[in-house]
Design a protein that fits this description.
With 169 residues, this protein is of the alpha/beta class. β4, α5 and β5 form a beta-alpha-beta unit. It starts with 10 loop residues before the first helix and ends with a strand.
Length: 169
């Protein structure tokens, strides 16, 4: 099983990273699983993790989701007792499997404006060095965007398809 490079993450992010790593299928390591199929595998794992945390999960392509996708590729929400309103969005997640910088940034910018405690961006590139280059650009976008709350955290999960490993920041 590939081992991810994980810097200092909080417990919430470590749990997400662990589930994302567990979603790396053998088929993808051989390069035969389509990105859409792999996205569903990650969503299924995070749907289960969200439910274990007591959250409602909203996403497409996951049979266990509580509702269809809503603004982002996957969200966790905390509900009011009446189930008509939610009180917070602990997680907002986006996927961008293409390698064009402009496409990745366009998807990522949705997370900049999300009012979520944790924001997760999943993307890919050929090597860990290329993944880190993209991360540098995304971190620069985070630092440039104002205002950011001190309670917002970003988890960048970049997949190096040549080494079949996620790099996290």
């Amino acid at each position: 099983e590939p081992t991810a490079e994980i810097p200092v993450l909080d417990d919430f992010e470590r749990n997400i990273a662990r589930e994302v790593d567990r979603a790396i299928p053998e088929e993808n390591q051989r390069g035969v699983l389509a990105d859409a199929s792999w996205t569903i595998r990650i969503k299924e794992r995070l749907c289960d993790l969200g439910h274990r945390g007591g959250f409602e999960v909203r996403t497409e392509g996951c049979s266990e989701a509580d509702a269809a996708g809503w603004l982002f590729d996957l969200v966790w929400v905390e509900q009011q007792p009446d189930a008509e309103r939610f009180t917070s969005m602990p997680l907002a997640m986006q996927f961008a499997w293409g390698q064009e910088l402009k496409d990745i940034v366009a998807v990522f910018e949705k997370l900049l404006v999300a009012k979520a405690g944790h924001k997760v961006m999943v993307f890919q590139h050929s090597s860990p060095a290329e993944v880190r280059n993209l991360m540098t650009i995304l971190v620069d976008r985070i630092r440039s965007f104002q205002p950011l709350s001190s309670h917002e955290r970003f988890l960048l999960a970049g997949y190096s398809y040549k080494q079949q490993v996620f790099v996290y920041e």
